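User: Structure please.
Assistant: Input sequence and predicted structure:
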Amino acid sequence: MSAISRREYKITPYYFQASKSSFVGCDLSCIGLTTSVGNFAGFEMEKSEKRLPARTMMPPWALSWRCYVIGILSYVLQLTSLLLSELGIISEQYFSSIYSAIIIQLSLLLFIKISVRPSQLDVAWRALLLGTVLNVGLTLSTFTLKYQTLGIYLIFLSFFHWSEFMMQSIFNPDTTDVSSYMLYHSDAYVVAFIASLVEYSLELYLLPSMKQPTFLTNIGLTLLILGEGLRKVSMYTAKSNFNHYVQLNKNEGHELVTHGVYRLFRYSNARHHVFLPTFD
């Protein structure tokens, strides 16, 4: 019998220690057998001096778009179920009730809570929230006529806030945080948003015919696309020179942008509001 010198092994994700005191009377075949079993089970045995590299953190923009997209899961399931039922593949439509949509969205929130790192949770749940707003907008504009204009409004509202964070985190990550979603950037904005919903509700109740889609809806939709497109082109042109907040001091590396869309619009990021009427 040969004595076993003190050696330490690591089995990912557990540790295995072979010491002289615990394996006296055993030969080296025990170590070989244990190693074989560990490899067969899918674990990798290596000396403890070697450390596995830490899991890299997902960039905020990548996490944001993933959470934003999965936010429309209940809408996708409902639309898929409708198409399958129309084709006769399934006998009835599923995921069409509001309760199933709520359960799906809450399950997604729980999934994000469990799977996302705590340091990135604020980015993730806000993206999921905006994805849920997009979900509601798509549902209203697709499956209802009475609330179609409200659905379109929610679609653009959701995309505006999410894409603000997305563009900022890609081109100017050093100044990006959860405030880049612009969900609460001023009291005036919150008051205007609430006022638009109150106005819509009163007009829908008193004069429901005003809220039916007309040619004015197409004009408003065109203005929304132009305004949002102008802002995003401006952010893309400015790249790291763009910031959501007014800068009082010139930062190192900051340059005055005069090319691209800035040749036509001096304050193109602000002028997009001209094209953004209250779409209700």
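The longest strand covers residues 7-11.
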